[in-house]
């Protein structure tokens, strides 16, 4: 499902799933290019998850002006995890960074995640570096719900992160595509990467208030779904058996 784009493959693909974020498209793209040009060869893969506002038009205009930008569109709205997975499938780079399309994640933090990934000792087998938001700029209800969910998840899954819901992550594309897929997968990447025997690292990142558009989900809806997802991930972790080193025997 990858693109046949001309030229050598980049080192990093930045995947941004969006739904009705027309006002945030161009400002965020400009911030990504500012953060990464001259730092690492990269591409930007926007996944339009069935937007019904001006998002497609904004992306088309940006695509004509930003050479690093590629655009993929879902015919139907399928959710953030589906958008991330589609973007990773279309990505041409071995490393993928994700961030939310609402502008609350700062693209200037991506080089910090990339540096942490590159600096990890090979023996640690690190396949994911996740952002952990400092001074979170959200409503009191969202921060309370997130704090409760993170504590429960951390206790049950032992995933070594206080903020698995942060959209800013950097990971190995091949390792991601080996994971079992389900809706809301993106919230459990640290636990699932560890489940496959790999290491993770966490980096503190900034968080910004939303200045354009409106959130597409409700706190109560997400909390109810998270309980079911958590039970499913616990089952997946309990049923994983790792074979250790695997080698083909010589004749």
Architecture overview:
With 251 residues, the chain is of the alpha/beta class. It has a single domain (12-238), classed as Spore Coat Polysaccharide Biosynthesis Protein SpsA, Chain A (Alpha-Beta Complex), CATH 3.90.550. The chain has 8 helices and 7 strands, in the order βαβαβαβαβαβααβα. It has a 7-stranded mixed sheet, sandwiched between helices. Strand 1 (12-18), helix 1 (22-36) and strand 2 form a beta-alpha-beta unit. Helix 5 (140-157) runs parallel beside helix 8. It starts with 11 loop residues before the first strand and ends in a 13-residue tail after the last helix.
Terminal Cα separation, in Å?
Answer: 36 Å
The rounded Rg comes to: 18 Å
Q: Roughly what percent helix?
A: 25-40%
Structural class: alpha/beta
Q: Under CATH, the topology is which? A: Spore Coat Polysaccharide Biosynthesis Protein SpsA, Chain A
Principal-axes geometry comes out as globular
Strand content: 15-25%
Number of strands: 7
């Amino acid at each position: 499902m990858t693109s046949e784009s001309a030229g050598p493959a980049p080192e990093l693909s930045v995947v941004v799933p969006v739904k009705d974020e027309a006002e945030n498209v161009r400002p965020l793209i400009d911030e990504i290019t500012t953060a990464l040009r001259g730092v690492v060869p990269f591409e930007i893969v926007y996944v339009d998850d069935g937007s019904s506002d001006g998002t497609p038009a904004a992306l088309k205009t940006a695509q004509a002006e930003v050479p690093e930008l590629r655009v993929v569109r879902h015919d139907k709205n399928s959710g953030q995890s589906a958008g991330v997975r589609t973007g990773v499938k279309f990505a041409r780079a071995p490393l993928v960074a994700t961030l939310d399309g609402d502008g609350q994640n700062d693209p200037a933090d991506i080089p910090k995640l990339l540096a942490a990934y590159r600096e990890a000792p090979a023996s640690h087998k690190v396949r994911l570096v996740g952002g952990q938001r400092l001074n979170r700029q959200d409503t009191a209800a969202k921060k309370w719900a997130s704090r409760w969910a993170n504590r429960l998840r951390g206790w049950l899954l032992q995933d070594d992160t206080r903020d698995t819901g942060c959209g800013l992550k950097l990971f190995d594309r091949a390792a991601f595509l080996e994971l079992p897929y389900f809706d809301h997968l993106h919230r459990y990447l640290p636990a699932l990467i560890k489940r496959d025997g790999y290491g993770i690292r966490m980096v503190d990142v900034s968080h910004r208030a939303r200045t354009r558009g409106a959130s597409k989900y409700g706190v109560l809806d997400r909390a109810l779904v998270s309980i079911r997802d958590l039970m499913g991930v616990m089952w997946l972790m309990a049923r994983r058996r790792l074979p250790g080193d695997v080698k083909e025997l010589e004749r």
